[in-house]
Specification:
GO terms for molecular function: RNA binding; RNA methyltransferase activity. The protein is an alpha/beta fold. About 45% of the residues lie in helices and about 10% in strands. It has 22 helices and twelve strands. Strands 5, 6, 7, 8, 9, 10, 11 and 12 form an eight-stranded mixed beta sheet that branches. Helix 4 (about 90-100) packs across helix 7, helix 9 crosses helix 10 and helix 13 packs across helix 19. The radius of gyration is 25 Å and the shape is globular.
């Protein structure tokens, strides 16, 4: 019986692909000069992210509409865009082995095209020759013929190995953190921060599942609001009728996997919104305890308005009033638009620095400080953030978080509740801030957030929270840290304080 021929590369490593890799034999000048629309869409998004610090999740839908892509091409462009951005650091490490100069010496459009080509070669079901030829055509169309030869040569070098073979070669002399960082496309400093946070919350063995969850495509979560004479459940019912699945974690929420949400009833009216269930959950926690009519609430960092809209909806139901504060005028306008469908008696918008909130002369019964942070808890939704953020960002952000907390405590009414929320599990932005705030303010008591969130949850949500392992400190045990791999949400953090009467 004849045996299948062994497929080994030049270094003698066994291949794990179904056959030898095939590249086009035509010269770059003989190939297409026009960019494929789906690949061009991804290229434009990468350019906006690199040049304008744009967020891919905001730019990509507009580019898909601009290119008038059909459903199949839109899915291809989406996978190519997010996959390339997510693995950018890993791909740059691989490209550095295949390019004859430092990557920073390449023109940014050429480097972006190489990243797109590398993702197609190593992580997508794209024929090797198509991955190379279409990338070369993209470069010829968008950059010029001069760079096409370089791109062709580099991608051929990249395609000599599979992704696993590249990992084997590049991680041979790395330590554990560096190896995990390369294999799971996270900067090493983020891997270290995640490992530390998981340990503090009793999940030390869950680092790899968390990194894997960060690289999974996120679900679209929906929230229904009390607005326009409709109840929150009305919008969710309509979404379910259109193909959404009602959340099993919390009420008035759903999961949508059907594509463009703009076609759902309630979206244009503003009573159905996209919002991660973790964000919904922590906002509802602030409004969970019994509400007295006429209470004054404050969202100190309201832009762009997601949590503010939910809180305003809850305030409208309870007869309370929300002040949504946002320092940037253009973001304050986004907040107004987000709140517009809700009864105007239930909310107002203040444009001003949250650190000067005491200038209003008001005190508030409930305050949420959803502080600016590194955003490490939402890497599934904003894959470019992992490469954009640096450890040097932390001092400025944590100082701002501290100042905002101080301002909030200063206007919190006696007996009032203060929710400190971040979309980051980094200990410096979460547990350290809580402990520092308690040390400065003996009038504050840290409430147990988990029982409150369990009370707001459906049975499946209660089970998720109840399954949390024991934390390493009383502070961590009193707070709630959600995780993508454990709860299916962004890594939202919640600490809930009460101001005791002096």
């Amino acid at each position: 019986m004849s045996q299948e021929p062994q497929r080994r590369n030049a270094k003698g490593r066994q291949r794990h692909r179904g056959g030898p890799r095939k590249f086009s034999q035509s010269a770059p000048a003989q190939r297409s000069r026009r960019a494929d629309p789906a690949r061009l869409t991804a290229f434009r998004v990468l350019r906006a992210v690199a040049l304008d610090d744009a967020y891919a999740n905001l730019v990509l839908p507009a580019e898909i509409r601009r290119a008038r892509l059909n459903k199949r091409d839109a899915a291809f462009a989406t996978e190519l865009t997010y996959g390339t951005l997510r693995a950018q650091g890993t791909y740059d490490t691989i490209l550095a082995q295949a390019v004859d100069r430092p990557l920073e010496q390449l023109d940014p459009p050429v480097l972006n095209a190489l990243r797109l080509g590398t993702h197609q070669l190593l992580a997508m079901r794209v024929d090797d020759h198509a991955a190379v030829n279409e990338t070369v055509a993209l470069v010829r169309d968008q950059v010029g013929a001069g760079a096409s030869g370089l791109v062709n040569a580099v991608l051929r070098k990249v395609g000599v190995r599979t992704l696993q073979e590249w990992f084997q070669e590049l991680t041979a002399e790395l330590d554990e953190v560096q190896s995990l960082a390369l294999r799971h496309a996270h900067p090493p400093w983020i891997v270290r921060a995640m490992r530390q946070s998981l340990k503090l919350h009793g999940r030390a063995e869950q680092l790899v599942p968390l990194l894997e969850a960060d690289n999974a495509a996120p679900e679209v979560h929906l929230v229904g609001l009390h607005a326009g004479g409709q109840q929150p459940g009305d919008a969710i019912e309509a979404a379910v009728a259109a193909g959404a699945v009602r959340s099993e974690v919390i009420e008035a929420a759903a999961v949508f996997r059907g594509g463009d949400i703009s076609r759902l009833d309630g979206v244009r009216e503003g009573i159905l919104r996209v919002q991660d269930i973790g964000s919904q959950w922590v906002a509802r926690a602030l409004a969970g305890p019994a509400i007295a009519p006429g209470e004054r609430w404050l969202d100190l960092c309201a832009g762009p308005g997601g949590k503010a809209a939910l809180l305003a909806s809850l305030a409208a139901e309870a007869g309370a009033h929300l002040t949504a504060n946002e320092p940037a005028p253009h973001r304050a306008e986004l907040v107004r638009k987000a709140l517009a469908p809700i009864s105007p008696q239930a909310w107002s918008v203040r444009t001003g620095d949250g650190r000067s909130i005491s200038d209003t002369g008001q005190v508030y019964d409930r305050i949420i400080v959803d502080a600016p942070c590194t955003g490490l808890g939402a890497l599934r939704r904003r894959p470019e953030a992992r490469w954009r953020r640096q450890p040097s960002d932390l001092p400025q952000l944590t100082h701002l978080q501290q100042e905002l907390l101080e301002a909030a405590v200063g206007v919190l009414a006696s007996g009032g509740l203060l929710a400190y929320v971040t979309c980051s599990p980094h200990p410096a932005e979460t547990l350290v801030q809580v402990e520092d705030t308690l040390s400065r303010h003996p009038e504050l008591t840290l409430l147990e957030a988990q029982p409150l969130m369990e009370d707001l949850a459906l049975p499946a949500g209660r089970q998720l929270l109840a399954a949390a392992p024991a934390a390493l400190s009383a502070t961590a045990a009193g707070c709630v840290q959600l995780w993508p791999h454990a709860h299916g949400t962004d890594a939202m953090f919640l600490a809930l304080f009460r101001k005791e009467a002096r």
